[in-house]
Amino acid sequence: MATKAAPAHHEAAHDHAEHPHPGFWRQYVFSVDHKVIGIQYAVTGLLFLLFGFCLIMLMRWQLAFPGRALPWLGQLLGEARMPGGSMLPEFYNELGAMHGTIMVFLGVVPLAVGGFGNFVLPLQIGAPDMAFPRINMASYWSYFLGGITMLASFFVPGGAAQSGWTSYAPLAVIAGQGQTIWLLGMVLLITSSLLGSINFIVTTVQLRAPGLTWFRLPFFVWAQLVTSFLLLLAFPPLEAAGIMQLMDRVAGSSFFMPSGLVVSGQQVAYTGGGNPLLWQHLFWFLAHPEVYVLILPAFGIVAEVIANNTRKPVFGYKMMVYAVWFLGFMSFIVWAHHMFFTGMGTTMAAFFQTTTMIISIPSVVLLSSLLLSLWGGSIRFNAPMLFALAFLPMFGIGGLTGLPLGLSAADIPLHDTYYVIGHFHYVVAPGTLFALFAGIYYWFPKATGRKMNDFLGKLHFWPSLIFMNGIFMPMFIQGLAGVSRRLYDGGASYDFAQDVIHWNVFMSMSAWGLGLSQIPFIINFFRSIKHGEKVGDNPWDATTLEWAAPSPPPHGNFITEPSVHRGPYEYSVPGHPSDFTPQFLSAQKAG
Amino acid sequence: MNRSQLPLFPESASSIAPEVDALFYAWTAVSIFFTALIAILILYFIVRYRRKQEDDVGQPERAPVWLEIGWSIIPLVIALAMFAWGTQVFVKIYRPPSDAVVYYGVGKQWMWKFQHPTGQREINTLHVPVGQSIQMKLTSEDVIHSFFVPAFRVKQDALPGRYTSIWFRATKPGTYHLFCAEYCGGEHSKMIGSVIVLEPRDYEAWLAGGQGGQTMTLSGAELFQQLACQTCHGENGSGAGMAGMAARAPRLAGLYNTEVTLADGRKVIADESYIRESILNPMAKVTAGWQPIMPTMQGQVTEEQLTQLIAYVRSLSQQEVK
Predict the structure, then answer these.
(1) Which residues of B are less than 8 Å from A571 in CB distance?
(2) Tell me, what CATH number does A163's domain have?
(3) Contact (CB<8Å) A413/B182
(4) Is A371 close to B49, i.e. CB distance below 8 A?
(5) Contact status, residue A159 vs residue A81, Cβ threshold 8 Å
(6) Residue B94's closest chain A neighbor by CA?
(7) Biggest distance spanned by C-alpha atoms of chain A
(8) What is the pTM of this model?
(9) How far apart are the first and last CA of chain A?
(10) Residues 6 or more apart from A405 whose CB is under 8 A from it?
(11) Number of neighbouring beta carbons within 10 Å of residue A210
(12) Could you give the CA distance from residue A559 to residue B131 in angstroms, rounded to a whole number?
C-alpha cells in the first residue's frame, strides 16, 4: 500500500510546480484542492445550519404562543404564510419539513463529512490531495446546487415541501409543487454524497503515506471511512426511491400509491396498486444508516481532541476500530424499528428489535472507550476539549433514551411523540454539533494559521450547553405525557397535555437563548481569520500527520513527503523527551 | 387529573397498559443508572486528572482486559433480557384473544370514522363497553394515519389500501383521548377524537338509542345483493350456480382466513386485505381454477361499505363453523 502511494506524491508535487498561480476562480471558487473544497463545504454547511436553526426559532414562536401575531417579522413573511402576523398551519409544516431536511442533508452531513472529511482526512493520511480532485469539486457543486434548489422551493406556489423530512407516501405524493422541488434537490444532494464517499474510500485505501499501516490510522480516518461506506451503500436506494416518488407525482406511475384513494371527497387517479410501505422501507434503509453518518464523524473528532488534551492514547483503540465497523454493518439491518406500528407484523418487529438491541453494544464500546480515555490523563480544558467532553454525556443521554424506543412494546406510547424528538436531538444537537464545534476550534489553526480565541470559545460553550438542555430535556416530559410531534399548536388542543405544554415557553426561550449564544462563536470565527493569535505547524502538540504540514498547508500539503513510524496517539510515552511523539518522527529523533 | 403531580404518563385504562408501563419504567431505570454512571465518571475524571502543572504528563493505559470485555458483555446481556421481555409484551398486544369483537375504523383527512359490529356509525367518537376485548381493524381513505389512545397504550397506523389491526380491553369507564399520531397534512393537529368507555348496561342503552338500525353483516348482505355478487358467487356466497347452472366464481362461505391457491400457483391467506383487494382489483390475485371475469367494484363502494362486505364474508364463515 505504502509503496503504491509514493508515485502519486511525486506527480502532485510536479503539478504544483507547473501551475503555481491558478488564478482567482480556479483557486478559490472552482478549486480542485481538497482544503479549499473542505472549507467551502464547511462554510456552506455552517450557513445552512444557521438557516435551519432560524426556521426552528421561528417555529418555536408558534409553539410557545400559538396563533399570536409575531411582531414585524410576521408581516415581513407575507400574508400567504403569516396572515396578520400569525402562522398558518401549512407554513408551520413547511418550516418543519425544511428544518429537518436542511439540518440533516444540508448542514450536519456536509459539515461533518464534506467539510472535516475533505480538509482533514488527506492531511491525516499524508496525501497531497484526494484521489479524484475533480470528482471532489463535482461533489461540492452538486451539493451547492441541491442547496439552492431546496432554498428555491420556498418560493414556488404553495411553498416548500410540507410532508415532513420523511416525505411519507401518499401524503407527499398528493402534496403541492414544493415536494417536486424537494425531490429534485434530494437527487442532487444524494449524487453529491455518492461522489464524495467513493473519493474518500479510494483516497484512504490508495494514498496513505509510507509507513501508515491500517492500525496506525487515526480514529478519525476510520470513522470517515466507515461513514463513506454507509453513504455509498445506503444512498442509492433512496435515490431510486426519490425518482420513483417523482414519477408518481409527475408521470402518473403508482409505485407508492394504492388504488382507489379518495382525497377530500375526490377519487384520485392512481390505479397501479402501489404500496405506501415500500416508500418507508426504502426511506429508512437510507435514513437509519444516515443516523450513523451523523454520529460517526463526531466520534472521530472527539477521539482526536480527547487524545490530544488528555495527553494519553485513546483507550482501547483496536476495540474502537472493530466497534465502528460492526456498527456500520449493523446499521443496515435495523431500519424497520422506525416502522413498528405500520402493521408489518410481529415477526418482522421481533427481528428488528433484536438487531436494534445488538447495535447498542458497539455504541456502548465507543462511548465507554472515550470515557475511559480520561482515566489517568493530564487534562487540558481548552475550548475544543470542553465541547468534546460535553459530547460524551449528551450523546449518552441521546443513546440511552433511545433504548425504550427500540423495543416495540415500550415504543407504543412514545412513538411519534416529543420523546422521540428529544431523543434524536440529544444525539445530533448537543451530540454531533458539539463534536463539530470541537473540530472547528481544534483544526481552525491548521486551516488559517491562527487560533480562535479561547475565552470567546468558553463563552460560546457554557451557555450553549445550558440552553441545549433547556430545549431538549422538557421534550421527554411532554413526550411521556403523550404530546405528538408535528403539531402546529404545540399540543394546545390536547386536553390531557395541558399540564405539560407550559414547557413550550421555556423551551422556546432556551432556543432563542441558544441562538444568542452563537454570537460569540460567529464573532470569534471571523475575527480570528485576520486577528487570531498566530501559531506554528503544531500548536496543540499533537501527534497525527496533519500537524506535520505548514499552517495553512500549501497546495500539495507537505513540504517534504511525510513517512510514518508509529501509532497515532503516542502521548506521554515513558522515556521519550516530550509528552508527545508525532507519527512522522523517526525512531532516532524520538530518542 | 391531579395537577400537582408530575404528569409522567397519562392515566392507564386498558389491560395492557400496566405491562407496557412496567417495561418502560424498567428501561428508564437502566438508562438513568448508566446516564448517572457516565456523568459521575466524567466529573470524577476531569477533576482527578486535570492538568496541575505545565509539565504534567498523561499515564499510559491501565484498564485491564476484563474491564474491556465486561462492558461489552454486561450491556449485551441486559439488552437481550429486555428484548425477550419486550417481545413477549408486544406479541400479546398484537394477538387478539378469541372473544374479541371486531370494530372498524377508517381514517381520512382529518377525522376518524368508526363502525360498530351492530352497525352504528360514529365520527371522531367511539363508544365501547368496559371489560370487552375489542379488535380494531383500521384502514384509511387517503394518507397514512395512526390510531393512538394514550390511556390504552395502543398505537397502530392506518394505511390506505390494506387493513391493520390492534386490540384492547378497557378497564375503567371514562372518556379517553384519541388522536392521529402520524403526520397527515395541514390539520393533523386537529385530528382529535375520544373513546368513551361505558358499563355494559350503559353501552346497550347507548346502542338502543342510536340510529344504527342494522348490523354491519346485514348491511353487507344487502350490498351483496345490490352489487349482484350472488349471480356468480351464489346466494349467500354458497358457490352454487343460479338456476341450476354451474357457478362462475369461487365459494365465499368458509373462505375467510383460509389459504387460497392462486392461478399462478402462489398461496395467500384470505384475510381482510385480500378480500378488499379482490373486490377492488379482481385481476390481482385470481383463485386457481376460475376465469378472471369479475368486474372491478372500484368507485362503486366506499371504504365503509367495503368493511360491511368484508364483515358479511366473514360472517359466512362463522355460520359455517356452527
Answers:
(1) 57-58
(2) 1.20.210.10
(3) no
(4) no
(5) yes
(6) A346
(7) 82
(8) 0.90
(9) 28
(10) A337, A411, A414, A415, A419, A420, A423
(11) 17
(12) 81
Give the C-alpha separation, A302 to A395, whole Å: 11
- The residue segments making up the domain with residue A533 are 23-257+270-590
Say whether residue A489 is in contact with chain B using an 8 A CB cutoff. Answer: yes
The interface predicted TM-score of the complex, written ipTM, equals 0.85
CB contact under 8 Å between B82 and A259, yes or no, is no
SS3 content of chain B, % helix, strand, coil (to 5): 40, 20, 40
The answer to whether the CB of B147 falls within 8 A of the CB of B178 is yes
Helices then strands (H, E): number in chain B? 7, 12
Nearest chain B CA: its distance from A445 CA (Å):
22
What are the two backbone dihedrals, phi and then psi, of residue B114, each rounded to the nearest 5 degrees? -120, 150
Provide the grid cell at A222.
476510520
What is the topology classification, in CATH, of domain B1-47+96-212?
Immunoglobulin-like (2.60.40)
Cβ contact A535:A450 at 8 Å: yes
pLDDT tens digits in sequence order for chain A, 591 residues long: 333 444 444 444 444 444 556 788 888 888 999 999 999 999 999 999 999 999 999 999 999 999 899 888 888 888 888 888 889 999 999 999 999 999 999 999 999 999 999 999 999 999 999 999 999 999 999 999 999 999 999 999 888 999 999 999 899 999 989 999 999 999 999 999 999 999 999 999 999 999 999 999 999 999 999 999 999 999 999 999 999 999 999 998 999 998 878 888 788 888 778 899 999 999 999 889 999 999 999 999 999 999 999 999 998 899 999 999 999 999 999 998 888 888 887 888 888 988 988 898 899 899 989 998 998 889 999 999 999 999 999 999 999 998 888 888 888 889 999 999 999 999 999 999 999 999 999 999 999 999 999 999 999 999 999 999 999 999 999 998 888 898 888 888 887 788 888 999 999 999 999 999 999 999 999 999 999 999 999 999 999 999 999 999 998 999 998 999 999 999 988 888 888 999 998 876 665
- Local structure of B157: helix, strand or coil: strand
Residues sharing a CB contact under 8 Å with residue B88, sequence separation 6 or more, in sequence order: none
Q: Decide if domain B216-321 falls under CATH 2.60.120.460.
A: no
The most distant pair of C-alpha atoms in chain B lies apart, rounded to whole Å, by: 105
Q: Which residue bears the cell 438487531?
A: A355
Q: Which residues contact A61 (CB under 8 A, 6 or more apart)?
A: A68, A70, A87, A508
| Distance from C-alpha of A453 to C-alpha of A447, rounded to nearest angstrom | 15
Q: Which amino acid is at A447?
A: A
Overall domain count for chain A: 1
Question: Nearest 5°: phi and psi at A31?
Answer: -80, 150
Give residue limits of the domains in chain B: 1-47+96-212, 216-321
Beta bridge mates, B122: B114
The pairing of beta strand B164-169 with beta strand B133-140:
antiparallel
Best mutation target among B78, B154, B189, B307 (most A Cβ atoms within 10 Å) is B189
Cell digits of residue B26: 424498567
E strand or H helix at A4 = helix A2-18
For the record, the C-alpha cell of A2 comes out as 505504502
- Print burial letters for A131-150: b (CB count within 10 Å at least 16), e (below 16): bbbebbbbbbbbbbbbbebb
**Which cell numbers in the block locate residue A528?**
480570528
C-alpha cell at B149: 389512545
Closest CA of chain A from B34, distance in Å: 8
**Whether A499 and B159 lie within 8 Å, measured CB to CB:** no
Q: Which residues pair with B157 in a beta bridge?
A: B146
Classify residue A149: in a domain, yes or no.
Answer: yes
Task: Count the Cβ atoms, other than its own, within 10 Å of residue A21.
Answer: 7
- What nine digits make up the cell of A483? 404530546
Bridge partners of A461, per DSSP, are: none
Residue numbers in A near B1 (CB within 8 A): 496, 499
Is residue A83 situated within a structural domain?
yes
Q: Do residues A435 and A219 touch, judged by C-beta distance below 8 A?
A: no
